[in-house]
Write a structure and sequence with these properties.
Layout lengths: L21 H6 L6 E3 L2 E3 L5 E4 L2 H4 L8 H13 L11 H13 L6 E5 L2 H18 L7 E5 L8 H6 L3 H4 L9 E4 L5 H4 L15 H9 L3 E6 L15 H12 L2 E5 L13 H5 L5 E4 L11 E5 L1 H9 L17 H16 L2 H17 L7 E7 L2 E6 L8 H12 L2 E2 L1 E3 L2 E4 L7 H18 L1
Parallel strand pairs: 3-13, 5-6, 5-7, 7-8, 8-9
Antiparallel strand pairs: 1-2, 2-3, 4-10, 9-10, 11-12, 12-15, 14-15
Bound molecules: pyridoxal-5'-phosphate (PLP).
Length: 441
Amino acid sequence: MNDMSPPRPNDLDSFWMPYSDNRYFKTNPRMLARAEGMSYFTPEGREILDGTAGLWCCNAGHGRREIVEAIQKQAAIMDFAPTFQLGHPIAFEAAARVAEMTPDGIDRVFFTNSGSESADTALKIALAYQKARGQSQRVRLIGRERGYHGVGFGGMSVGGIGTNRKQFGAMLPYVDHLPHTHDPARNAFTKGMPEHGVELANKLEDLVALHGDTIAAVMVEPVAGSTGVLVPPVGYLKRLREICDKHGILLIYDEVITGFGRLGTDFGAERLGVVPDIMTMAKGLTNAAVPMGAVACSNAVYEAVVEGSPAGIELFHGYTYSGHPLASAAAIATLALHREEDLPGRARAIEPYWEEAAHSLRAAPGVVDIRNLGLIAGIELAPREGKPGARAMDVFRRCFDDGVLVRVTGDIVALSPPLIIEKPHVDRLIGTLSDAIHAIA
Ligand SMILES: Cc1ncc(COP(=O)(O)O)c(C=O)c1O
């Protein structure tokens, strides 16, 4: 504990909160004022166990001294410098540390500030790559139903969540979608990767038959998180990879939540045994202490775009804050912690206990499915008649009031704790969730 007086807002009206029920929140505010290790603290000092690593991002736990000090030090040395036609050493160092962690051959790193920017950047790089190699007819982007790739127009269009699109009119043109892989009739209550559904990857062949050689890239989350934890069926990603290779299509993984140890390996690509051409990341890259995202590309993609361009700027894309010094410092410190503390190894070690604990909720009232992989679990509840999402929202509120933070999406409770979680935390998290599910049934 420290003795800083907790911040209290004097006005709830000004901040238009993202992805929130503003009207409900502003009459029933739930505030977080401080964080340390596995916990948040409310302004009143009440401890809340973090079952979600913030928003899938504080993988090393909160308030890590090494990261805080690196940011403080860098802020005093150089607050900001552009990376357009100039450089500063720690941006290069941060990129090298990321490249060390990504699969072999995926060694070129473009910095952004968020997962959404990473998604849009990856799509633009894929289009630029196809053009550079003389395939300018390849303008089509394929996503997947229920996919989430952030809120930019690219990610939103290639994403497949209806509620995220319906307020915003026309999407990007030339986008199509694979079917999602959720199949509760065959796979409900599977532990780890579901057995059924590899054939859903063959739908990409149907899209190739329809669109011919106009497809530039396919983008999927290795494990879909925001839509409520959809674990890929055994063999599915391998099949997608094969079809992409056969037809000259790039495979993009959105590793924004699966990166940095969440699946017990550095990236999901490693755990799932299938390497893409481009991977997006954000969140755990800096332990969320400073916003930062990145897109790691294969050497072939980089070389085609860079070598294939006339002299001068090769990619007309970038952000003022690409490789921001404070974010770079946070990333270097985070990735050092990741290695020193073997965060993926910690996730792997506790995964069996986590899996059993999550699946112990199977008999709780209204639970219709449980899914898990790495340190992720999704607990799906039957919706209340005519009120989709209401049941899970009641669980969320009840858990918060009982000292545990969970995340809900629709009627699914999605859990993704910091990777430093220990067995007593797992017991408390799942125990409180179980009590809440029983209480609101
Ligand atoms: C898979 C995936 N992609 C992209 C994003 C968007 O990231 P951000 O909110 O940092 O823009 C998220 C956020 O949860 C995500 O889960």
